[in-house]
Structures are given as structure tokens and as C-alpha cells.
């Protein structure tokens, strides 16, 4: 007796294959269905969500404050709006324990996403601390097991916040990466690592695709590729830039009564056509 493969299996495999050291997957992160469509229309091979941008669009703060159902409903709208793979930033898993992380992963798959970012930072009760390695490994293992049980080769990207919150030691990062990969992660995301030598050491020392966070002032994608990076994302930077346009246009209109900030916007018909595609 044969079992029909999960409808997302091929998409998940296609997303997994995009992670190539030296030829990185480039992800301009999106936060709602329309930004996802704009990113895909620009030529992105996949769409990654930004938890911060997604939360802000819903009037909430980032940092494990949004509830799972609300966040994943937004992810579902994004996944349904594009024809490319979608990876969901699920913060620390929208759950207190590994069983809850497994529930989240099942909900992610139901929403249509084929990848997740799971971060190892704590927001409560000690904001800025990192979870103990063993505890985080259990959460990643639960995510892996839940996805495998669904028959979806979900790409589990283990975010390690040593450079954002923990002092930025390469050796400590490599130790955490090895533990998380052993638990079932497929890739490692080290936001805050920006120095070329450091990135090179991480790429060489991590036996999996390395994801780095880029943005203004960061190395260009070509240089990151030469260092062995396999995935480049920009987190909330695109959303931040979009909201800067909103604030600038509002201030100009209210304070000066002029409209220069609105120049260069996408055409109404272009966006409407995307929305009806």
C-alpha cells in the first residue's frame, strides 16, 4: 500500500535545494500578503516572513508577544498569495515547551509554509538571555519530529543569537550550532555576525547552510557568497524602510502640505494587478 506524498513535499524540497554555500538564497523579508507578492514579483526564489514586520502590521510588538494563531493566520495568507516557497519566522516557537513547538510546526505546515526560523533567545523572564543549549535542542528536535511525521521535509533554520545578545564568541556559536544540527536543524542563522573574518569562520565551522542578516552597511551579497554564506536575509529592514516612507509622507503632508515623499511609489494598477493575480 502506497501513501500519497504530502502536497507540500516537493515545495519543501525545492526550498531546501536553494541553500547553496557560495550561491546564497537571497530573501527580502515580507510581512503581509501584498509585500509577499511584491517580493515574489521582483524575482525572489522564495519568500521569508519577518516576525517583527508581521507583528507591526497587526499592531503588536515583536518579541514573543503575538499569539500563535494570529501570527500563523498571517503566514497562511502570505503562503496562499505566492507561487514560491514560504519560510515562516516563528520567533522562539510561540510555545513554552517542546510539545508546544511541535504544535506550532504542525500549524506552520497547515498554513502552507515549508521552512521555519526558531530563535534561541529568551524574552521572558530574562530578556536578552539565551536558552540553555539542551533545552533549545529539545525544542528543535520537537520541530523536526513534528515535520517528519507530517511527511514534509521542513527546513528548520536554527537562529543563534550569540552575536546579538551573548558577546559574539565564534567558539560558543559553533558549539550551539553543532548541538542544534544534531537535534535536527537544517541550517543555522547567526544575525549580528558582520565581520568578514567572523563570517568566514562560521561558514567553515558549521556543517550546514549558514544564514546571515544583512542590511545597510553590511557586506554585499557577492562578498557574502565568497565567504561561503548560503542564505542572506534582511529581517525587518524592508518593513522599517516602508514605515519610514509612511512617516515621512505623513509629516510632509501635515507640516508642509506638499507631496514630494509620495513620488516613486508603485503604480495603483501595478499593485491592483498583483492583488488580482
Automatic annotation (TrEMBL):
Record's keyword terms, sorted: Lyase
CDD domains: ICL_PEPM
Xref: InterPro entries: ICL/PEPM (IPR039556), Pyrv/PenolPyrv_kinase-like_dom (IPR015813), Pyrv_kinase-like_dom_sf (IPR040442)
Record bears the keyword Isomerase: no
Record flagged with keyword Lyase: yes
Any one GO MF annotation of this record: lyase activity
Protein's name in the database: Isocitrate lyase/phosphoenolpyruvate mutase family protein
Organism: Streptomyces gilvifuscus
